[in-house]
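Example 9 (inverse folding). The structure is encoded as follows.
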């Protein structure tokens, strides 16, 4: 496993929602680490708990419906789940920033770009109005927005989707955070703009030596951007390893299914593979492994017992195909 100073460490995080049907375990005991200067990819289908994990870290869960029921979230030397809202505001947007999925809904339509981008600087610095305006214009230029002097006084609806996402990136970067959480930052954009945004994020990350938690369902984005990968399914991490290991030697059947679903330029005429079934609802999880009903390698134990996270050298995998016997991993069916 990677060594170095940890910027973010999530330990046994459990996030629960209270509903009319009872308690829903959206995130059910995950462990994550993001190290200095690296990008960790958090991967999985919609409904796996990726976004809820990011909102738990940022302290943005919809209360009182949602809560962190158990676990710890350490940012450097601070345990975030113990902080009040006033203390979290000092960290949020300053030391930890987030880029949300849809820039049109993340930007307030009744305020100009400049008014919205000025807010973190007013909250976290002692700069005057003129200095703040100049800093915002400089950041808009850094993210490749033309006419920055005019755009700062325009409203979100006057910008294209790609320009709005660049504005969101500049908003996240204004206070030069130590950790950037990007939740599906290119989902609503066309392929050409996606590539530009990813390249921009990579350049900014390297320039400021930031750490990044990149949440996505797109393994092509993971291959382009990430150093390590954690694969989520039904509120749990089912496999984690460095990106090269995941792509060359995936062990969990779910990870293999995701990789098999990727388009192959050499097999254009073949139908794309898709994993049968869908992610179970958090309140309707089966007794055994949550992936067992969709898994081509499931056997009787998978249907009866939930597997633990098993260490396999430099990776971990939550699957009964690999049971530990005297410290050695044993494969049942491969």
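The amino acid assigned to each position is listed next.
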């Amino acid at each position: 496993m990677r060594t170095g100073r940890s910027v973010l460490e999530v330990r046994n995080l459990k996030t629960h929602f209270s509903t009319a049907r009872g308690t829903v375990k959206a995130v059910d005991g995950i462990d994550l680490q993001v190290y200095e200067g690296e990008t960790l990819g958090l991967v999985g289908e919609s409904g796996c708990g990726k976004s809820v994990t990011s909102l738990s870290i940022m302290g943005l869960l919809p209360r009182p419906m949602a809560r962190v029921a158990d676990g710890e979230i350490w940012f450097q030397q601070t345990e975030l789940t113990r902080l009040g809202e006033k203390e979290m505001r000092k960290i949020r947007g300053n030391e930890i920033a987030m880029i949300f999925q849809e820039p049109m809904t993340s930007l307030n339509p009744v305020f100009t770009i400049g008014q919205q981008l000025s807010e973190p600087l007013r909250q976290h610095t002692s700069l005057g109005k003129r200095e703040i305006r100049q800093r915002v214009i400089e950041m808009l230029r850094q993210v490749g927005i033309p006419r920055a002097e005019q755009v700062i006084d325009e409203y979100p609806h006057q910008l294209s989707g790609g320009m709005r996402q660049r504005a969101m990136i500049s908003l996240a970067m204004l206070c030069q955070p130590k950790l950037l959480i990007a939740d599906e930052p290119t989902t609503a954009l066309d392929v050409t703009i996606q590539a530009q945004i990813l390249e921009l994020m990579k350049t900014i990350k390297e320039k400021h030596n930031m750490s990044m938690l990149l949440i996505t369902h797109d393994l092509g984005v993971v291959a382009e951007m990430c150093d390590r990968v954690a694969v989520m399914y039904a509120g749990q991490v089912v496999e984690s390893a460095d990106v090269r290991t995941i792509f060359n030697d995936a062990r969990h059947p779910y990870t293999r299914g995701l990789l098999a679903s990727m388009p192959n330029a050499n097999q254009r005429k073949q139908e794309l593979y898709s994993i049968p079934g869908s992610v179970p609802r958090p309140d309707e999880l089966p007794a055994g492994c949550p992936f067992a009903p969709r898994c081509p390698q499931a056997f009787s134990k998978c249907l009866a017992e939930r597997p633990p996270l098993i260490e396999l050298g430099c990776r971990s995998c939550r699957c009964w195909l690999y049971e530990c016997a005297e410290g050695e991993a044993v494969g049942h069916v491969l």
